[in-house]
Design a protein that fits this description.
single chain, alpha/beta, seven-stranded mixed beta sheet, 12 helices, globular
């Protein structure tokens, strides 16, 4: 796994934040220092880390505006894990910076100041292909794509791949696809067919590990914990341990 990774998919509800948070916490459980960056105005990553999005005087919004740096806003949430939080203010950033020269490189410049302080930096993007996601792609070494094993879940994936290609061509030639991660997997014919489609489409970039549906993952989110902290024996924990073993 490379130093800076972004988790992206313009379709919501596919487990993108679930993957970003639990991969980050499993890396930390293995002794690696991790910075989680919440680039989603919904602030699901911030909430999952046990933080109140409305409690912060400054967030990643202020970093993108250029009035704070990441060291100013980051908070320690667990041993080896820091968070650059978000809140609803981030929803206004697109219209505020879109016309500025170099707007798509603002996150990259902010990260460059703290890159050497962490083994891994994981960025969670919103379910869209706008300014925030482009900033995440430009700043990263690799992109992880979560795709739910459900009907119509792969629709729109081509658009994300087009955006990744455009970012490569214009801003970040070295951007790689780390893994396409099948999520919400169940032992059904439909889910099996979806994995076959993903394998045909993505080939070797499709993760061997499938993240199975598991109620414990939802419970861990509500408790502000990773699935490994909440229930290490659950199938959710087993799947994320397996995924991290596959990608590191």
């Amino acid at each position: 796994m490379k130093k800076i990774s972004v988790f992206a998919n313009q379709k919501g509800g596919v487990g993108k934040t679930t993957c970003a948070v639990n991969v980050g916490f499993e890396l930390a459980r293995r002794g690696r220092s991790v910075l989680l960056i919440d680039m989603d105005p919904q602030a699901n990553m911030t909430t999952w880390c046990g933080q109140d999005p409305d409690s912060f005087d400054a967030t990643i919004y202020d970093v993108l505006k250029g009035t704070s740096n990441i060291d100013d806003i980051k908070v320690k949430v667990k041993e080896k894990v820091h968070l650059a939080p978000s809140n609803i203010l981030l929803a206004s950033i697109e219209r505020e910076i879109f016309a500025a020269i170099g707007y798509e490189r603002r996150l990259k410049k902010a990260i460059q100041e703290i890159t050497e302080n962490f083994n891994h930096i994981l960025i969670d993007c919103p379910p869209s292909l706008g300014t925030l996601t482009v900033n995440g792609l430009v700043a990263s070494d690799e992109v992880y794509i979560a795709v739910a094993c459900e009907h119509l879940s792969v629709i729109g994936t081509n658009k994300l791949l087009e955006t990744i290609d455009a970012v490569r061509d214009n801003y970040n030639a070295g951007l790689e696809i780390g893994r396409v991660i099948p999520t919400m997997f169940t032992n059904t014919v439909l889910a099996g067919e979806m994995v076959k489609q993903l394998s045909t489409f993505f080939g070797d970039t499709l993760a061997k590990t499938k993240i199975r549906r598991n109620v414990k993952i939802g419970e861990s989110s509500a408790m502000g914990q990773s699935i490994m902290e909440y229930d290490l024996q659950s199938i959710g924990a087993q799947d994320f341990i397996s995924l991290v073993e596959e990608i590191i």
